[in-house]
Input
Amino acid sequence: MILIDTHSHIYEDDFNEDRNEAISRLLSNNVKKVLLPNIDLDSLPKMLALEQTDPTLFSSMIGLHPTSVNEDYKTQLSALYESSLHHNYCAIGEIGLDFYWDRTFEKEQIIAFEEQVDWAIQKDLPLALHVRKALPETIASLKKFDKNKLHGVFHSFSGSYEMSQEITRIGDFCYGINGVVTFKNAGVAEVVKNIPLDRIVLETDCPYLTPVPYRGKRNETSYIKYIAEKIASIKEVSVEEVARQTTKNAMELFHISSIKE
Output
């Protein structure tokens, strides 16, 4: 059984004390590939340093997270784009719109988002989309582009099945399912029941969104097995089938040609 974590922040400071141990645990739990979404210029060196330790296991994305968009967003975008010219990134991400806490930079978020979608089209890279309290606005932005050139994943998808159907009409997108699917009353399980397995990729978003039975503690990539098990239960298939299909989905979506032996 082979698992891929398509969204892990294992490079963050939360793992400074035991990162090597966390890597050993994920490997022992059949995780053979870990994709690292970028946040901003500050996160970039840490992420790339981790990728360099084992490029077969780790692959980095490039992008500016919507909550990092502020007065200097143009400077950030310029520097991140420059980095994209000199490194083989697997996706443009983590990008999108987030109006949950604050809408002060709403206009700037939309401008930054659409500019980075354009990068993905130029480079034929998938998008890793962060969307929080901004799904209609995100869809409105994506509709400005040629749907035949858009592909990627809606990270931490928590929209309705009807919304997923609308998303299928604007591009070739998968849905990132993480520990939220194990939460009671979250509503994600019902949506997962209706989304085809060939549209789902697994993710942890560690150190956040820890699945049951470790909810409330720091999340880590090795816990992805609990997400796979929950999806298998929802869809009434084996966990091996979930692993097989979601790994296939991730490899095709992110153009992964090889994984760690």
Remarks:
- The mean pLDDT is 96.
